[in-house]
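In response to the reviewer comment on reproducibility (Comment 2.3), we provide here a single inverse folding case reported in full, input and output, so that an independent group could reproduce the run without further information from us. The structure tokens appear first.
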């Protein structure tokens, strides 16, 4: 049976943004979220070796999560 990993991209990007501080490119734009997100996704792939890996993001605006928990 294939091992399929479904990753909450919004959560991973949020974690990456707050986990790494002070990363920026030569123009001064912050790159900490992109770097951290990529590093965490690559580490997951390397350590877990899933057959398939999908990263999904929340759409703009309220979602079903807000219906389940209004303080989300």
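Designed residues, in position order:
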């Amino acid at each position: 049976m294939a091992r399929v990993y479904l990753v909450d991209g919004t959560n991973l990007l949020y974690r990456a943004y707050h986990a790494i501080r002070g990363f920026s490119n030569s123009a001064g734009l912050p790159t900490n979220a992109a770097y951290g997100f990529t590093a965490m996704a690559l580490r997951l792939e390397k350590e877990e070796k899933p057959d398939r890996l999908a990263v999904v993001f929340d759409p703009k605006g309220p979602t079903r999560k807000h219906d389940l928990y209004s303080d989300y």
